[in-house]
C-alpha cells in the first residue's frame, strides 16, 4: 500500500492527520475511488472532474491543484508496482480549532492511497447476488461524493447481516441508488436508471453503462422507477467502480426475473469487461 499525504510519500504507519481535521470532526471532505486495470487508470479524468465539481458545490478550494493531484496519483501507482489497484483519494478542508464556520485560513488535507485490488468472486457475476431494500435516509445532496457515509455504511451493514451484497435505497417508494453503487432495472426490454440529479451519485460506471447501451442499441431511459418496478423487473443490476456491473437476482427474498443474470445485463457486463482489458 502506497500512501501520499499532502503530496508527500509517507509510510503507512506514519500517515497521520490532525485531531482537528475537518474531515474527522465534520465529515467536511470529499473522496473518489478509482480503479486501475493492467497498470492503467480507468477514467481517472472523469473522477477528477467529478471531484472538482463536488469541491465547488461545498465551497472547497483544492489549493494544491488538480493537476498536482493527478501527478501524485500516477506517481503513487508507479511506485506501487500494482497492475490491478484501487486508488482512494480524499480531500478535506484541513485542520483548524473546531468551529462550524469555515476556517479563515487553512490548507486542504489530501490523501492518495493505492492498494492492490482483487477481483470479486467470479460466481458473483456468473450467478448474480442478493440485495435488500432500505429507506434512503441520506441528505438531499447525494450527487456530492462526501465522506459522510454513515447512512450508506448502516445500509451496507444491514445487507451484510441479511447475507446480501447490496442495500438498495428508496425515497418515498422511488428507487434512487444503492449504498455504494447505482441501480439499473430492465422493464419491457428497456434499461432504466434514476436520473442524474441531487438524489444520486452520478456514478462514473453508470455513465459508462449508459454509453454501452447507446453504442449497442439497447433502449434506455434515465427516469424514476418505483419499488414495485424493481421487484417486477425482468433484470436488475448495480454498477460501481469496485462493483463493476453486478447482477442482482434476489431482493428482500423475492426472485427477480428468472433468478439468473438476464440477457441485457450479460451483454453489458461483457462490453464493460472488454473496456477494462
Ligand atoms: N462508491 N452510488 C454511491 C452512493 C457510491 O458510493 C458509489 C461509488 C456509486 C458508484 O459510483 P462510481 O461508478 O463512480 O464508482 C454510486 C465508491 C466506489 C465507494 O464508496 O467505495
TrEMBL record:
EC numbers: 2.6.1.21
Names of required cofactors: pyridoxal 5'-phosphate
Pfam families: Aminotran_4 (PF01063)
GO BP of this protein: amino acid biosynthetic process; carboxylic acid biosynthetic process; D-amino acid metabolic process
Superkingdom per UniProt: Bacteria
Organism: Biomaibacter acetigenes
PANTHER family to which the protein is assigned, alphabetical: AMINO-ACID AMINOTRANSFERASE, D-ALANINE AMINOTRANSFERASE
Keywords recorded for this protein, A-Z: Aminotransferase, Pyridoxal phosphate, Transferase
InterPro entries: Aminotrans_IV, Aminotrans_IV_CS, Aminotransferase-like, BCAT-like_C, BCAT-like_N, Class-IV_PLP-Dep_Aminotrnsfr, D_amino_transT
Name this protein carries in UniProt: D-alanine aminotransferase
Span of the signal peptide: none
PROSITE patterns per record: AA_TRANSFER_CLASS_4 (PS00770)
Function text: Acts on the D-isomers of alanine, leucine, aspartate, glutamate, aminobutyrate, norvaline and asparagine. The enzyme transfers an amino group from a substrate D-amino acid to the pyridoxal phosphate cofactor to form pyridoxamine and an alpha-keto acid in the first half-reaction.
Family label: Belongs to the class-IV pyridoxal-phosphate-dependent aminotransferase family.
Gene3D superfamilies attached to this UniProt entry: 3.30.470.10, D-amino Acid Aminotransferase, subunit A, domain 2 (3.20.10.10)
Assembly and oligomerization: Homodimer.
Enzyme class, spelled out: transferase
Catalyzed reactions per annotation: D-alanine + 2-oxoglutarate = D-glutamate + pyruvate
A single Gene Ontology CC term: cytosol
MF annotations from Gene Ontology: D-alanine-2-oxoglutarate aminotransferase activity; pyridoxal phosphate binding
Keyword Transmembrane appears in the UniProt entry: no
Keyword Zinc-finger in annotation: no
